[in-house]
Amino acid sequence: MGRKMKVQIFGAGAIGCLFGYFIQKAGFDVVFVARGKQLEALQKELRITGLIDDSISIDARRYACKADVTFVTVKSYDTQTAAEQLAGKTEVVCTVQNGIGNEDILTEKVDNVVGGVTSYAANLVDYGVVCYAGEGITYLGDWKGEGASVVAEILKKAGMNVEVVEDIERKKWEKAVINATINPLTALLRVENGKIVEIEDVWNVAESIAKECEEVMKAMGYKLNAVELVREVATKTARNRSSMLQDIERGRRTEIEAITGEIVRKAKELGVETPVNELMLRLVRGLECSILSS
Ligand SMILES: NC(=O)C1=CN([C@@H]2O[C@H](COP(=O)(O)OP(=O)(O)OC[C@H]3O[C@@H](n4cnc5c(N)ncnc54)[C@H](OP(=O)(O)O)[C@@H]3O)[C@@H](O)[C@H]2O)C=CC1
Ligand SMILES: CC(C)(CO)C(=O)C(=O)O
Q1: DSSP-assigned letters across all residues of 17-58
Q2: Which of 36, 41, 227, 280 has the greatest CB tally within 10 Å of its CB?
Q3: Closest C-alpha among 227, 186, 187, 225 to residue 204
Q4: Tens-place pLDDT, residues 225-268
Q5: Residue 179 CA: which ligand 2 atom is closest?
Q6: Regarding the domain delimited by 6-166, which CATH topology (the fold level of the hierarchy) does it fall under?
Q7: Are 208 and 181 in contact (CB under 8 A)?
Q8: Mutate-to-test residue for ligand 2 from 100, 175, 235, 242, highest number of ligand atoms within 8 A of CB
Protein backbone atom coordinates (compact mmCIF):
# COMPACT_ATOMS: atom_id res chain seq x y z
CA MET A 1 0.00 0.00 0.00
CA GLY A 2 1.57 3.34 -1.13
CA ARG A 3 -0.35 5.59 1.25
CA LYS A 4 -0.36 5.56 5.04
CA MET A 5 -2.70 2.92 6.45
CA LYS A 6 -5.78 4.36 8.18
CA VAL A 7 -6.74 2.69 11.43
CA GLN A 8 -10.01 3.40 13.21
CA ILE A 9 -10.96 2.77 16.83
CA PHE A 10 -14.74 2.37 17.07
CA GLY A 11 -15.62 2.94 20.73
CA ALA A 12 -12.77 4.99 22.15
CA GLY A 13 -13.20 4.06 25.81
CA ALA A 14 -10.61 2.38 28.04
CA ILE A 15 -9.18 -0.40 25.87
CA GLY A 16 -9.86 1.36 22.54
CA CYS A 17 -7.91 4.45 23.62
CA LEU A 18 -5.01 2.30 24.82
CA PHE A 19 -4.77 0.42 21.51
CA GLY A 20 -5.25 3.65 19.54
CA TYR A 21 -2.55 5.38 21.57
CA PHE A 22 0.07 2.70 20.81
CA ILE A 23 -0.92 2.55 17.13
CA GLN A 24 -0.81 6.34 16.65
CA LYS A 25 2.56 6.55 18.45
CA ALA A 26 3.89 4.02 15.89
CA GLY A 27 3.08 6.48 13.09
CA PHE A 28 -0.27 5.21 11.78
CA ASP A 29 -3.07 7.59 10.87
CA VAL A 30 -5.67 6.84 13.61
CA VAL A 31 -9.28 7.99 13.99
CA PHE A 32 -11.00 7.56 17.37
CA VAL A 33 -14.81 7.26 17.31
CA ALA A 34 -16.39 8.28 20.61
CA ARG A 35 -19.49 9.98 21.97
CA GLY A 36 -20.76 12.31 24.69
CA LYS A 37 -18.37 13.72 27.27
CA GLN A 38 -15.65 11.26 26.26
CA LEU A 39 -15.73 12.69 22.70
CA GLU A 40 -15.58 16.27 24.02
CA ALA A 41 -12.57 15.42 26.20
CA LEU A 42 -10.76 13.46 23.46
CA GLN A 43 -11.15 16.39 21.06
CA LYS A 44 -8.85 18.29 23.45
CA GLU A 45 -6.37 15.46 24.13
CA LEU A 46 -5.92 11.82 25.12
CA ARG A 47 -4.08 11.35 28.39
CA ILE A 48 -2.54 8.00 29.36
CA THR A 49 -1.60 7.32 32.99
CA GLY A 50 -0.55 4.20 34.92
CA LEU A 51 2.28 2.28 33.27
CA ILE A 52 2.82 5.26 30.91
CA ASP A 53 2.47 8.99 31.50
CA ASP A 54 1.78 10.86 28.26
CA SER A 55 -0.72 13.12 26.48
CA ILE A 56 -1.34 13.26 22.73
CA SER A 57 -3.60 15.13 20.31
CA ILE A 58 -5.88 12.79 18.40
CA ASP A 59 -8.47 12.87 15.62
CA ALA A 60 -11.65 12.16 17.63
CA ARG A 61 -14.99 11.99 15.80
CA ARG A 62 -18.62 11.11 16.50
CA TYR A 63 -19.17 8.75 13.55
CA ALA A 64 -17.20 6.10 11.69
CA CYS A 65 -15.24 7.10 8.61
CA LYS A 66 -13.53 5.10 5.83
CA ALA A 67 -10.59 3.09 7.15
CA ASP A 68 -8.38 0.17 6.21
CA VAL A 69 -8.64 -1.49 9.60
CA THR A 70 -11.18 -0.81 12.37
CA PHE A 71 -10.91 -2.08 15.94
CA VAL A 72 -14.33 -2.48 17.55
CA THR A 73 -13.94 -1.73 21.25
CA VAL A 74 -17.48 -0.94 22.38
CA LYS A 75 -19.16 -3.07 25.04
CA SER A 76 -20.81 -6.13 23.51
CA TYR A 77 -24.35 -4.69 23.82
CA ASP A 78 -23.28 -1.87 21.43
CA THR A 79 -21.75 -4.12 18.74
CA GLN A 80 -24.88 -4.14 16.55
CA THR A 81 -24.82 -0.33 16.30
CA ALA A 82 -21.09 -0.43 15.55
CA ALA A 83 -21.62 -3.01 12.79
CA GLU A 84 -24.33 -0.89 11.17
CA GLN A 85 -22.09 2.20 11.15
CA LEU A 86 -19.15 0.26 9.76
CA ALA A 87 -20.96 -1.31 6.78
CA GLY A 88 -19.08 -0.31 3.62
CA LYS A 89 -16.58 1.77 5.63
CA THR A 90 -13.73 -0.60 6.51
CA GLU A 91 -11.73 -3.28 4.70
CA VAL A 92 -11.06 -5.23 7.90
CA VAL A 93 -12.74 -5.17 11.29
CA CYS A 94 -11.09 -6.61 14.40
CA THR A 95 -12.76 -7.09 17.77
CA VAL A 96 -10.91 -7.58 21.04
CA GLN A 97 -14.15 -7.49 23.07
CA ASN A 98 -14.97 -9.98 25.79
CA GLY A 99 -17.92 -12.29 25.33
CA ILE A 100 -19.32 -14.45 22.56
CA GLY A 101 -21.19 -13.32 19.46
CA ASN A 102 -19.50 -10.03 18.56
CA GLU A 103 -17.64 -11.49 15.57
CA ASP A 104 -20.85 -13.00 14.18
CA ILE A 105 -22.66 -9.65 14.43
CA LEU A 106 -19.79 -7.91 12.56
CA THR A 107 -19.75 -10.67 9.94
CA GLU A 108 -23.23 -9.58 8.82
CA LYS A 109 -21.90 -6.15 7.75
CA VAL A 110 -18.15 -6.41 7.00
CA ASP A 111 -16.32 -8.81 4.64
CA ASN A 112 -13.10 -9.37 6.63
CA VAL A 113 -13.61 -10.03 10.35
CA VAL A 114 -10.76 -10.79 12.75
CA GLY A 115 -11.61 -12.29 16.13
CA GLY A 116 -9.52 -11.30 19.12
CA VAL A 117 -8.88 -11.81 22.80
CA THR A 118 -6.74 -9.41 24.81
CA SER A 119 -5.30 -9.47 28.31
CA TYR A 120 -4.08 -5.86 28.14
CA ALA A 121 -5.86 -3.92 30.89
CA ALA A 122 -7.08 -0.33 30.92
CA ASN A 123 -9.56 1.75 32.94
CA LEU A 124 -11.21 5.04 32.18
CA VAL A 125 -10.31 7.23 35.18
CA ASP A 126 -11.96 10.38 33.79
CA TYR A 127 -13.26 11.48 30.39
CA GLY A 128 -10.21 11.53 28.09
CA VAL A 129 -7.97 9.94 30.73
CA VAL A 130 -7.11 6.24 30.48
CA CYS A 131 -5.09 4.30 33.04
CA TYR A 132 -2.87 1.68 31.39
CA ALA A 133 -3.21 -0.94 34.14
CA GLY A 134 -1.50 -4.03 32.73
CA GLU A 135 0.58 -5.24 29.81
CA GLY A 136 -0.84 -8.39 28.25
CA ILE A 137 -1.04 -10.23 24.96
CA THR A 138 -3.59 -10.13 22.15
CA TYR A 139 -4.54 -13.32 20.29
CA LEU A 140 -5.99 -12.89 16.82
CA GLY A 141 -7.50 -15.17 14.21
CA ASP A 142 -9.41 -14.87 10.95
CA TRP A 143 -13.16 -15.25 11.58
CA LYS A 144 -14.43 -14.38 8.11
CA GLY A 145 -12.27 -13.54 5.08
CA GLU A 146 -8.74 -12.50 5.97
CA GLY A 147 -7.06 -9.77 7.96
CA ALA A 148 -5.47 -11.32 11.08
CA SER A 149 -1.92 -11.02 9.70
CA VAL A 150 -2.46 -7.34 8.73
CA VAL A 151 -3.87 -6.51 12.17
CA ALA A 152 -1.04 -8.42 13.89
CA GLU A 153 1.52 -6.43 11.88
CA ILE A 154 -0.07 -3.15 13.02
CA LEU A 155 0.02 -4.22 16.68
CA LYS A 156 3.62 -5.49 16.36
CA LYS A 157 4.70 -2.16 14.85
CA ALA A 158 2.90 -0.49 17.76
CA GLY A 159 5.13 -2.47 20.16
CA MET A 160 2.28 -4.62 21.50
CA ASN A 161 2.43 -8.36 22.23
CA VAL A 162 0.38 -10.25 19.66
CA GLU A 163 -0.01 -13.78 18.34
CA VAL A 164 -2.09 -15.10 15.44
CA VAL A 165 -3.73 -18.41 16.41
CA GLU A 166 -5.40 -21.16 14.37
CA ASP A 167 -8.40 -21.54 16.65
CA ILE A 168 -9.53 -18.11 17.83
CA GLU A 169 -12.97 -19.49 18.69
CA ARG A 170 -11.40 -21.67 21.39
CA LYS A 171 -9.55 -18.64 22.84
CA LYS A 172 -12.79 -16.64 22.90
CA TRP A 173 -14.59 -19.42 24.79
CA GLU A 174 -11.72 -19.86 27.27
CA LYS A 175 -11.88 -16.15 28.08
CA ALA A 176 -15.69 -16.38 28.33
CA VAL A 177 -15.34 -19.22 30.88
CA ILE A 178 -12.98 -17.05 32.98
CA ASN A 179 -15.36 -14.09 32.76
CA ALA A 180 -18.46 -16.24 33.45
CA THR A 181 -16.90 -17.49 36.67
CA ILE A 182 -15.12 -14.42 38.05
CA ASN A 183 -17.27 -11.53 36.84
CA PRO A 184 -20.78 -12.37 38.16
CA LEU A 185 -19.46 -13.44 41.60
CA THR A 186 -17.31 -10.32 42.02
CA ALA A 187 -20.17 -8.10 40.84
CA LEU A 188 -22.77 -9.73 43.10
CA LEU A 189 -20.51 -9.80 46.16
CA ARG A 190 -18.71 -6.51 45.34
CA VAL A 191 -15.29 -8.01 45.95
CA GLU A 192 -11.91 -8.02 44.20
CA ASN A 193 -11.06 -11.05 42.03
CA GLY A 194 -8.79 -12.63 44.68
CA LYS A 195 -11.68 -13.10 47.12
CA ILE A 196 -13.18 -15.70 44.77
CA VAL A 197 -10.34 -18.04 45.67
CA GLU A 198 -9.81 -16.87 49.27
CA ILE A 199 -13.37 -17.32 50.61
CA GLU A 200 -14.09 -21.06 50.70
CA ASP A 201 -17.87 -20.81 50.25
CA VAL A 202 -17.40 -18.53 47.24
CA TRP A 203 -14.72 -20.78 45.73
CA ASN A 204 -17.18 -23.72 45.99
CA VAL A 205 -19.66 -21.75 43.86
CA ALA A 206 -16.86 -20.68 41.46
CA GLU A 207 -15.86 -24.32 41.01
CA SER A 208 -19.46 -25.26 40.18
CA ILE A 209 -19.70 -22.48 37.57
CA ALA A 210 -16.35 -23.41 36.02
CA LYS A 211 -17.18 -27.14 35.91
CA GLU A 212 -20.46 -26.45 34.10
CA CYS A 213 -18.58 -24.28 31.59
CA GLU A 214 -16.04 -27.07 31.13
CA GLU A 215 -18.88 -29.45 30.24
CA VAL A 216 -20.21 -27.00 27.66
CA MET A 217 -16.76 -26.69 26.09
CA LYS A 218 -16.39 -30.48 26.17
CA ALA A 219 -19.66 -30.80 24.25
CA MET A 220 -18.22 -28.30 21.73
CA GLY A 221 -15.14 -30.53 21.34
CA TYR A 222 -12.73 -28.49 23.48
CA LYS A 223 -10.80 -30.01 26.39
CA LEU A 224 -10.16 -27.58 29.25
CA ASN A 225 -9.32 -27.62 32.96
CA ALA A 226 -11.64 -24.71 33.73
CA VAL A 227 -11.26 -24.81 37.52
CA GLU A 228 -7.46 -24.51 37.34
CA LEU A 229 -7.67 -21.81 34.65
CA VAL A 230 -10.03 -19.73 36.78
CA ARG A 231 -7.94 -20.24 39.93
CA GLU A 232 -4.81 -19.08 38.06
CA VAL A 233 -6.45 -15.93 36.59
CA ALA A 234 -8.23 -14.96 39.83
CA THR A 235 -4.96 -15.34 41.74
CA LYS A 236 -2.92 -13.38 39.17
CA THR A 237 -5.51 -10.59 39.09
CA ALA A 238 -6.28 -10.76 42.83
CA ARG A 239 -6.36 -6.96 43.32
CA ASN A 240 -8.50 -6.26 40.18
CA ARG A 241 -12.06 -5.11 40.37
CA SER A 242 -13.57 -7.07 37.49
CA SER A 243 -15.11 -5.18 34.58
CA MET A 244 -18.59 -6.37 35.65
CA LEU A 245 -18.07 -5.09 39.20
CA GLN A 246 -16.88 -1.74 37.77
CA ASP A 247 -19.98 -1.55 35.55
CA ILE A 248 -22.26 -2.18 38.55
CA GLU A 249 -20.41 0.37 40.68
CA ARG A 250 -20.88 2.95 37.90
CA GLY A 251 -24.58 2.13 37.59
CA ARG A 252 -24.10 0.81 34.03
CA ARG A 253 -25.23 -2.23 32.08
CA THR A 254 -22.96 -5.28 32.18
CA GLU A 255 -21.85 -7.74 29.48
CA ILE A 256 -23.62 -10.64 31.26
CA GLU A 257 -25.70 -11.54 28.17
CA ALA A 258 -22.62 -11.94 25.93
CA ILE A 259 -20.81 -13.97 28.62
CA THR A 260 -23.03 -16.13 30.87
CA GLY A 261 -26.03 -15.62 28.57
CA GLU A 262 -24.13 -17.12 25.62
CA ILE A 263 -22.78 -20.02 27.72
CA VAL A 264 -26.30 -20.89 28.90
CA ARG A 265 -27.64 -20.56 25.34
CA LYS A 266 -24.90 -22.86 23.96
CA ALA A 267 -25.51 -25.34 26.82
CA LYS A 268 -29.22 -25.56 25.92
CA GLU A 269 -28.33 -26.11 22.25
CA LEU A 270 -25.97 -28.97 23.19
CA GLY A 271 -28.14 -30.50 25.93
CA VAL A 272 -25.80 -29.63 28.82
CA GLU A 273 -27.23 -28.69 32.25
CA THR A 274 -25.95 -25.36 33.64
CA PRO A 275 -28.14 -24.53 36.68
CA VAL A 276 -25.51 -22.46 38.52
CA ASN A 277 -24.73 -20.36 35.44
CA GLU A 278 -28.48 -19.86 34.93
CA LEU A 279 -28.73 -18.64 38.52
CA MET A 280 -25.81 -16.21 37.98
CA LEU A 281 -27.50 -14.92 34.81
CA ARG A 282 -30.76 -14.25 36.64
CA LEU A 283 -29.05 -12.66 39.64
CA VAL A 284 -26.91 -10.28 37.54
CA ARG A 285 -29.96 -9.40 35.41
CA GLY A 286 -31.76 -8.63 38.69
CA LEU A 287 -28.84 -6.55 39.93
CA GLU A 288 -28.79 -4.60 36.65
CA CYS A 289 -32.54 -3.99 36.91
CA SER A 290 -32.21 -2.71 40.45
CA ILE A 291 -29.31 -0.33 39.72
CA LEU A 292 -30.65 0.88 36.36
CA SER A 293 -34.09 1.67 37.78
CA SER A 294 -32.85 3.41 40.96
N1 LIG B 1 -10.85 -2.41 29.63
C2 LIG B 1 -10.12 -3.53 29.55
O3 LIG B 1 -9.05 -3.64 30.19
C4 LIG B 1 -10.56 -4.65 28.67
C5 LIG B 1 -11.75 -4.61 27.98
N6 LIG B 1 -12.10 -5.67 27.18
C7 LIG B 1 -13.35 -5.63 26.43
O8 LIG B 1 -13.30 -4.55 25.51
C9 LIG B 1 -14.62 -3.98 25.33
C10 LIG B 1 -14.58 -2.51 25.70
O11 LIG B 1 -14.28 -2.39 27.08
P12 LIG B 1 -13.85 -1.02 27.76
O13 LIG B 1 -12.91 -0.29 26.90
O14 LIG B 1 -13.47 -1.34 29.13
O15 LIG B 1 -15.28 -0.27 27.75
P16 LIG B 1 -15.59 1.30 27.76
O17 LIG B 1 -16.99 1.45 28.19
O18 LIG B 1 -14.51 2.01 28.52
O19 LIG B 1 -15.42 1.72 26.23
C20 LIG B 1 -16.40 1.61 25.24
C21 LIG B 1 -16.61 2.98 24.65
O22 LIG B 1 -17.34 2.86 23.45
C23 LIG B 1 -18.27 3.95 23.42
N24 LIG B 1 -19.33 3.68 22.46
C25 LIG B 1 -20.29 2.74 22.50
N26 LIG B 1 -21.09 2.82 21.42
C27 LIG B 1 -20.63 3.86 20.68
C28 LIG B 1 -21.05 4.46 19.46
N29 LIG B 1 -22.11 4.00 18.78
N30 LIG B 1 -20.36 5.52 18.98
C31 LIG B 1 -19.29 6.00 19.66
N32 LIG B 1 -18.83 5.47 20.84
C33 LIG B 1 -19.50 4.42 21.33
C34 LIG B 1 -18.75 4.03 24.85
O35 LIG B 1 -19.46 5.21 25.11
P36 LIG B 1 -20.51 5.26 26.35
O37 LIG B 1 -19.65 5.31 27.59
O38 LIG B 1 -21.26 6.52 26.09
O39 LIG B 1 -21.35 4.03 26.30
C40 LIG B 1 -17.40 3.92 25.57
O41 LIG B 1 -16.75 5.16 25.63
C42 LIG B 1 -15.54 -4.83 26.22
O43 LIG B 1 -16.09 -5.88 25.48
C44 LIG B 1 -14.59 -5.39 27.29
O45 LIG B 1 -15.08 -6.57 27.86
C46 LIG B 1 -11.31 -6.76 27.01
C47 LIG B 1 -10.13 -6.85 27.70
C48 LIG B 1 -9.65 -5.82 28.57
C1 LIG C 1 -9.85 -11.49 33.51
C2 LIG C 1 -10.75 -10.49 34.22
C3 LIG C 1 -11.68 -11.23 35.15
C4 LIG C 1 -9.81 -9.62 35.00
O5 LIG C 1 -10.43 -8.77 35.90
C6 LIG C 1 -11.55 -9.73 33.19
O7 LIG C 1 -11.40 -9.94 32.01
C8 LIG C 1 -12.61 -8.75 33.56
O9 LIG C 1 -12.57 -8.15 34.62
O10 LIG C 1 -13.52 -8.59 32.72
Answers
A1: HHHHHHHHHTT-EEEEE--HHHHHHHTT-EEEEET--EEE--
A2: 280
A3: 227
A4: 999 999 999 999 999 999 999 999 999 999 999 999 999 999 99
A5: 3
A6: Rossmann fold (3.40.50)
A7: no
A8: 242
Contact 146, 168 (CB under 8 A): no
For 189, residues 6+ apart whose C-beta sits below 8 A from its C-beta are 195, 202
**Domain assignments of the chain as residue spans, ordered by start:** 6-166, 169-293
Residue 1 has pLDDT above 60, yes or no: no
Q: What is the pLDDT of residues 42-74, one digit of tens each?
A: 999 999 999 999 999 999 999 999 999 999 999
DSSP of 116-182: EEE--EEEEEETTEEEEEE---EEEEEEESS-HHHHHHHHHHTT--EEE-S-HHHHHHHHHHHHHHH
pLDDT at 2 over 70: no
Decide: pTM greater than 0.95: yes
**Check whether domain 169-293 has CATH 3.30.420.10, yes or no:** no
Output the CA angle 36-38-40, nearest 5 degrees.
Answer: 75
Q: Give the dihedral of Cα atoms 47, 73, 34, 37; nearest 10 deg.
A: -60
CB 129, CB 38: distance < 8 Å: no
76 lines ligand 2 (CB under 6 A): no
Kindly give the distance from the C-alpha atom of residue 263 to the centroid of ligand 2, in angstroms, as a whole number: 17
Distance between CA atoms of residues 130 and 9, nearest Å: 15
Length of the chain: 294
Q: Do domains 6-166 and 169-293 have the same CATH topology?
A: no
Question: Above 0.90 for ipTM, yes or no?
Answer: yes
Give pLDDT, residue 56: 98
